[in-house]
């Protein structure tokens, strides 16, 4: 069981702390100038030279507040504790300068940029210094309550900004992970399909070259066409990844492009049948149907044993579109292949669109892939 104190103690420092910049040097200059001016214009202040030097001593801590938040907080609030101790020992009036309120910045930075251990140790030290200061100044209950509320609000503000930054970073990581998975699916579906087609053409080319040498040129042309298409699609994906700004690239293929997958001069032959009104599908659904059919066809060409025919059927059924890809290959009884990246990617595509996916041996033999997707993509 994980407790809140335990989880806070193990909390690492947040990433992305900005380096020292111009605003930090401006803050240091303002605090140092204010401390010097106060040391000159306040003749009623006891031990003015010592108090001014101590106030200036905490100025460098403002530059460490993000890189070494605990050290900065201990140094700054340590100066405040030393002044309270001197005030208590000498029984004098308030020794603090108004510029000493810069220690509040160090407390904020401790909670915002420190690790869990640093926050626990640092806030305990600050609480002890605050209690000592209230005792030395004989603060009433109203002053003690107001000061405590101010410090708690400062800690809560720092914790809120820390949480929001952590949430944003987690969201960015999730977005990047989703983009990597989507890219992996697209690369697998695109490259695997074209490479499978190249492999089939090359195998056929070996037979044709021996029996009908004059047709070898046609086979080589088909292989060149598939290879060029693969290279073009991969270049388009790489261009989208490398360009920081939006780039123009070819739109995703859809249901209307499925007839281009049909093949009558290869083994297995590929037949495509489109039924119903399929022209008004949501763009994500339209692209998904094409990619699912493409991947199912690739699997059939690569893995179906002795298959002579692959049928791709897409039809509109009310508010759903149904895809069925089947082949007439041999299927060994009781054997179910382990799902690979292709089946995993198809299932992910269907589930992301609130659809259903199934793949397995058909009742009449062969392998059947069935997908049902809503016509309109979910929000």
Automatic annotation (TrEMBL):
UniProt domain Signal transduction histidine kinase subgroup 3 dimerisation and phosphoacceptor: residue ranges: 179-244
Histidine kinase/HSP90-like ATPase domain residues: 288-376
Gene Ontology MF terms in the entry: kinase activity
TM helices/strands, residue ranges: 45-63, 70-89, 95-111, 118-138, 144-163
InterPro entries with a match to the protein in the record: HATPase_C_sf, HATPase_dom, Sensor_HK_TwoCompSys, Sig_transdc_His_kin_sub3_dim/P
EC identifiers of the protein: 2.7.13.3
Gene3D superfamilies referenced in this protein's UniProt entry, alphabetically: 1.20.5.1930, Histidine kinase-like ATPase, C-terminal domain (3.30.565.10)
Transmembrane helix is among the record's keywords: yes
Reactions the enzyme catalyzes: ATP + protein L-histidine = ADP + protein N-phospho-L-histidine
Domain of life: Bacteria
One Pfam family linked to the record: HisKA_3
UniProt keyword annotations, A-Z: ATP-binding, Kinase, Membrane, Nucleotide-binding, Phosphoprotein, Transferase, Transmembrane, Transmembrane helix, Two-component regulatory system
Cited PANTHER family: NITRATE/NITRITE SENSOR PROTEIN NARX-RELATED (PTHR24421), NITRATE_NITRITE SENSOR PROTEIN NARQ (PTHR24421:SF10)
Protein name: histidine kinase
Source species of the chain: Nocardioides marmoribigeumensis
């Amino acid at each position: 069981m994980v407790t809140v104190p335990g989880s806070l103690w193990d909390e690492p420092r947040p990433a992305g702390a900005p380096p020292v910049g111009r605003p930090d040097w401006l803050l240091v200059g303002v605090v140092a100038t204010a401390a010097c001016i106060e040391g000159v214009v306040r003749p009623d202040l006891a031990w003015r030279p010592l108090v001014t030097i101590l106030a200036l001593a905490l100025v460098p801590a403002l530059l460490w507040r993000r890189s070494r938040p605990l050290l900065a907080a201990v140094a700054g609030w340590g100066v405040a504790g030393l002044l309270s101790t001197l005030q208590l020992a000498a029984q004098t009036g308030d020794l603090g300068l108004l510029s000493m309120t810069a220690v509040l910045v160090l407390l904020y930075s401790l909670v915002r940029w420190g690790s869990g251990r640093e926050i626990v140790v640092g806030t305990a030290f600050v609480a002890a210094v605050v209690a000592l200061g209230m005792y030395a100044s004989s603060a009433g209950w109203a002053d003690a309550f107001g000061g405590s509320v101010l410090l708690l609000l400062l800690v809560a503000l720092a914790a809120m900004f820390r949480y929001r930054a952590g949430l944003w970073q987690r969201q960015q990581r999730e977005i990047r992970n989703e983009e990597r998975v989507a890219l992996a699916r697209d690369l697998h579906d695109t490259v695997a399909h074209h490479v499978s087609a190249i492999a089939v053409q090359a195998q056929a080319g070996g037979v044709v070259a021996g029996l009908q040498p004059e047709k070898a040129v046609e086979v080589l042309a088909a292989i060149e066409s598939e290879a060029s298409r693969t290279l073009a699609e991969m270049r388009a994906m790489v261009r989208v990844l490398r360009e920081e700004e939006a780039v123009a690239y070819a739109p995703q293929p859809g249901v209307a492009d499925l007839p281009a997958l049909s093949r009558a001069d290869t083994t297995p032959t590929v037949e495509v049948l489109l039924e119903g009104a399929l022209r008004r599908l949501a763009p994500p659904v339209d692209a998904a149907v094409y990619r699912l059919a493409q991947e199912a066809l690739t699997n059939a060409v690569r893995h179906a044993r002795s298959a002579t025919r692959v049928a791709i059927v897409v039809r509109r059924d009310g508010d759903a579109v149904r895809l069925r890809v089947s082949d007439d290959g041999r299927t060994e009884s009781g054997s179910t292949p382990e799902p690979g990246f292709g089946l995993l990617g198809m299932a992910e595509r269907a589930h992301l669109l609130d659809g259903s996916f199934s793949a397995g041996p058909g009742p009449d033999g062969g392998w059947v892939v069935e997908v049902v997707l809503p016509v309109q993509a979910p929000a």
